[in-house]
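Is this the right way to post structure tokens for a design question? Let me know if I should format differently. Anyway, here goes:
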């Protein structure tokens, strides 16, 4: 029946395909439940409904679907599209770690973090202001070496050419930005990435749900991000802060330059900078213009999180 559903979909008969998948899902078929979850999560053949998609992922997980099992654990940890239950997330992760080496690696990293019962950092992290205009704060060693290496590892299979948001709101490939990027979207935002995002929220004085998905960036020799602003023209929920985590060393060039002042930042592994993109009313700060200078040798890895003024509604 699944093969028949795929054939119907390929023939443009999406409604019939969905009906067949739903029939199988009603029989608790794990793959059909997962497919229904994915369809509702992303939208297209059915109306987008992430909460309904999450519920199908839960059912698929209960039916033994391995991808749904991990995805639902991730969503329990983040609280995206439904209730958040960090203790339940960690209990599930401990069970998954018995059979999955990657999940075991995540659990080991989580166990080394000083977290409270809800997954937030217990202790504050020391930082210092390195610029008043634009406002830039540096947090040395905010991420551990093992955490940085983990982010590089999980991003590796998923890199795509980096995009920029054009004037019409569409995302396009442009020569202003030539790096590759791996978005850690909400289905693959595992408990480690989630805890790191909550750490970024803590040092930026914001809530977790104000942040966009973490983006892992890879710059090979010659790649760069020419001068630009992170604030979005006309946005009603502005990207008012940016957090950048430097994930490795051993490359040449690649400094973050604030082009109006000449301030250049070359973070050590695990260092994080947080800078303000906009002022009152969400208007961009001209002094926040910055660039990722060309890498001259080696490969540079960076994690970026754009933080909104208010809760950011997840897109997937």
């Amino acid at each position: 029946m699944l093969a028949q559903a795929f054939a119907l979909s390929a023939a443009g008969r999406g409604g019939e395909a969905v009906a067949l998948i739903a029939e199988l899902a009603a029989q608790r078929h794990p793959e059909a439940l997962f497919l229904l979850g994915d369809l509702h999560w992303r939208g297209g053949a059915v109306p987008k409904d992430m909460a309904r998609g999450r519920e199908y992922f839960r059912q698929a997980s209960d039916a033994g679907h391995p991808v749904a099992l991990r995805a639902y654990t991730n969503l329990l940890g983040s609280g995206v599209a439904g209730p958040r239950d960090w203790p339940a997330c960690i209990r599930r992760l401990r069970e998954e770690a018995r059979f999955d080496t990657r999940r075991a690696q995540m659990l080991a990293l989580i166990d080394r973090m000083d977290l409270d019962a809800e997954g937030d950092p217990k202790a504050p992290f020391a930082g210092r202001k390195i610029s008043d205009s634009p406002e830039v704060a540096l947090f040395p060693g905010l991420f551990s070496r093992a955490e940085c290496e983990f982010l590089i590892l999980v991003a590796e299979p998923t890199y795509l050419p980096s995009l920029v948001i054009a004037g019409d709101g569409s995302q396009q490939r442009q020569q202003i930005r030539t790096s590759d990027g791996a978005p850690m979207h909400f289905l693959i935002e595992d408990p480690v990435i989630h805890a790191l995002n909550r750490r970024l929220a803590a040092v930026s004085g914001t809530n977790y749900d104000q942040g966009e998905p973490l983006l892992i960036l890879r710059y090979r020799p010659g790649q760069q991000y020419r001068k630009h602003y992170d604030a979005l023209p006309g946005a009603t929920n502005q990207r008012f802060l940016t957090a950048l985590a430097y994930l490795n060393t051993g490359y040449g060039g690649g400094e973050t330059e604030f082009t109006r002042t000449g301030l250049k930042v070359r973070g050590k592994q695990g260092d994080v900078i947080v800078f303000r993109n906009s002022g009152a009313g969400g208007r961009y700060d001209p002094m926040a213009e910055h660039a990722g200078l060309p890498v001259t040798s080696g490969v540079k890895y960076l994690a970026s999180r754009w933080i909104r003024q208010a809760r950011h509604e997840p897109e997937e």
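Format looks fine. Someone answered above. Worth noting: The chain has nine helices and 16 strands. The mean pLDDT is 93.
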